[in-house]
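thought: fold this chain, then report.
action: predict
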Amino acid sequence: MRSLFILIVCLCSTAIYAQRKPERVSASYQMVVESWMSEDQAKATALEQAKLQAMADEFGTKISQSTRTRIETSNQGGTNTRFNAIANSFVNGIWVEDVKPPEYQFLDTGDERWITCSVAGMARRIVKAAVQFEAKPLKCLNLGCATQDFNNGDPMFFYFKSPVDGFLSIYMDDESNCQMLLPYQNMRGNTLPIEADKEYYLFRQDPKYAYTDLSVVDEYELFTNEEFEMDLLYVIFSTENYYKPALSSDKAGYAAESQADTRKYADFPKYTDSKSFREWLNENVSVNDNMFLEVIDITIAK
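observation:
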């Protein structure tokens, strides 16, 4: 029996290793060379994106894309393009080595200069079982009010339900800065603890919906200075607790960077710049097999 047990363990270990052994991937990525970029900077950016594209094509991404059809035709496809660019930075793979040196081509077309980078290499698939949670922005405290379309001055609530215990945080990104909506601003800890199979209606100062000390619960009113604005909600759930990124509470700094009027908001969410947030998120999702991510597009119109 002991010999049989050892054999079974060895066979299982071999199967796990086989699932994660490096696979050959390849892709080409084309982009505009910005005026501030040197040739080396353009090559480095195109190379990074080409590798991410190759792994996204082969392994997919860690971002759940569950409700995007409404957005497809708005703003000439701008939101979908933006979502895809972000999704491709959260790939289910790790680049191991080049099979051959990357190839670059530059093309001048009138006022623009383009670069194309082609790569081929070996990458390892990241495999983890998904947790199928429910996450929906709301206009009122009822699932029938689930929406991705808001107007200036609308409140935003949020519904969440998970089949397992875990920890939740929610961030909103306007492409310049990313604000922390949950945990609440004066709440201790990095996340909100979640109980399995419990329905949560968040962002409401009511004992029925507090789930924590009522005095720290924040309510949110959406606003924009534009005729039409598109933002991303990052819903991060993990079966293990995790640390939040470094954040700032400087309202003036946020207003200057995002061209937002924050004067009438006494308690403004803490924030970090979008690039730093995505770097923090990518690092955490990549190494934490218990962390899961959904990104939801929302629009705000005047």
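thought: worth noting. Residues 1-19, 66-79, 262-266 have pLDDT under 50 and may be disordered.
final: tokens above.
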